[in-house]
Amino acid sequence: MWDLIFNPLITLMIWLYGVLGNNIIAGIVVLTLLIRLATYPLTIKQMRSARRTQELQPAIKKLQEKYKDDREKLSQAQMALYREHGVNPLGGCLPLLIQYPILIAMYQAIYYALASTPYQLVDLSQRLLVTDLARLIPLENMWLGMDLTQAPTPPGNPWYALALPALVMITTWLQFKVSVPAQSGPPDPNDQAANVTRSMGTIMPIMFGFLSLSFSVGLSVYFIVSNLVGILQYSPQVKALTDKLFPEKPRTAPRVEDTIAAMATSPVRSPKPATAKASSGGKTPKSAGKSYSKKK
After folding, report:
1. What's phi and psi for 218, nearest 5 deg?
2. CA-wise closest residue to 3 among 129, 131, 148
3. What is the DSSP string of 69-132?
4. SS3 for 147?
5. What pTM, to 2 d.p., does this model score?
6. How far apart are CA 150 and CA 153, in angstroms?
7. Which residue, 84, 212, 235, 259, could crosslink 220 as a Cys pair with Cβ 3.0–4.6 Å?
């Protein structure tokens, strides 16, 4: 099943390699741009979800004050608020999570395209959907003195190739910072969604950096280019252009100001009192027994 994804990507990469003057780095960069363009509708949805989450921060503060002594009710009220306004509290992690299947596909595409053994060369030629592209095999796999088929660690590559995993971590962290709106005030330890998002912002850059140490240099190039394009997509200028080209549909959810006003007037509900049966340890009260005997 994966071949249905791998083979078109491999064919497209080889075709771009030939069109761009037998430059595999240019082919990886252009293919990355095409992938980011294809997933841009999801990015737009995530950006607007993050914007709505930021708008709900005053209402969330009100809920935290209202249910400060009941964490369970606070969590339920926050989730109800998110549903009411059509907000995904984990929307900031969406672009990074989407990269998992794309990561697998790109890794395989780069692995097969940069074939280095006779067996891999034969396998590559069989995966091409356009047989005429086989004339471009084998591809040039050296770039700035680095072997794109090898991991950035010595002895497969020179020591300066280790700068690529560092750039992967930095650009992944920067993309996460610009994609998740900053919260006003200190972080709330009771906000589970915010805690998960902050944890992802720390774990994901480190994880991708360690993966880059094990994977080929060509995949590190993909990571860096993809992150830089993501950072550009979240710039104010691109956001403004996106809102003009793809206007947001009118919302049916109530205004945040109305939600805050309703919270201020509604009283805090106390827990329901225990039933007579529960308070008496499962025994039937005497009054209930007398009433039953009289009726009988």
Report:
1. -60, -35
2. 129
3. T-HHHHHHHHHHHHHHTT--TTGGGHHHHHHHHHHHHHHHHHHHHT--SHHHHHHHHHH-SSGG
4. strand
5. 0.70
6. 8
7. 212
pLDDT in tens, the chain (296 residues): 667 878 888 899 899 999 999 998 999 899 889 888 888 887 787 777 777 777 777 887 788 787 877 778 878 888 888 888 777 766 656 665 666 677 677 777 777 787 767 787 888 888 888 888 888 888 888 889 998 888 999 998 999 999 999 999 999 999 888 877 665 555 556 555 566 666 777 888 999 899 899 888 988 998 899 899 889 988 888 888 888 877 776 665 555 555 555 555 555 454 444 444 444 444 544 444 444 444 44
Q: Which of 161, 277, 179, 291 is nearest to 231 (CA)?
A: 179
Hey, what amino acid is at 169?
Answer: M
Asked whether the beta carbons of 109 and 13 are under 8 A apart, the reply is yes
**Both structure tokens of 232:** 């550009």
Both tokens assigned to 153: 């660690």
CA gap 47, 51 in Å, rounded: 6
Angstrom distance (rounded) from CA 212 to CA 166: 9
Rounded to an integer, what distance in angstroms lies between the CA atom of residue 181 and that of residue 51?
A: 7
**Helix or strand (DSSP H, E) at 142:** strand 142-143
> DSSP alpha helices (H): ranges in the chain?
3-19, 24-38, 40-55, 57-66, 71-84, 94-113, 118-127, 163-179, 192-214, 217-233, 236-245, 256-265, 276-279, 286-295
Domain residue extents for the chain:
3-247
Give dist(CA 170, CA 8) in Å, integer.
31
Distance separating alpha carbons of residues 123 and 111, to the nearest angstrom: 11
